[in-house]
Amino acid sequence: MKKGLREIVGLFFVWLLSDKVRMLWRASKVRFLRKL
Length: 36
Prior knowledge:
94% of the residues lie in helices and 0% in strands. By secondary structure, the chain is mainly alpha-helical.
């Protein structure tokens, strides 16, 4: 039970991190394109 919960929490954190990275990447890409 605890193991499954930990896996779910880990997956949730990975998803949050990937979402933040995607947002940052999109923002930096827009900024980079604006500089050109």
